[in-house]
Amino acid sequence: MPNDTTTRWTVSVSKDTDISVRSFLAQRGMKKGDLSKFIEDAVKWRVLEQTMAEARDKFSDLEPGELDDLLEEAVAAAREETSAKSAG
Question: Which residues belong to any copy of the XACb0070 ribbon-helix-helix domain (predicted)?
Fold first, then answer.
């Protein structure tokens, strides 16, 4: 039965990578179907890592104090927005 929340990918990896990943999963008691979950988690972490690196680059010209002020302002605004949504 197809699952509407997933998409099937066809990917190619080296034989060494295939063996390494499958051995890694097997050593931890994971089954063949766990490969998809492992890949999805790895992709999410890689996307997050690259997004964070891009953000760091964009703010690299700010002094640490300026960056702290900017972050505090953003957190305060997010908290205010969350409070307004939960009150209304």
Answer: 6-79
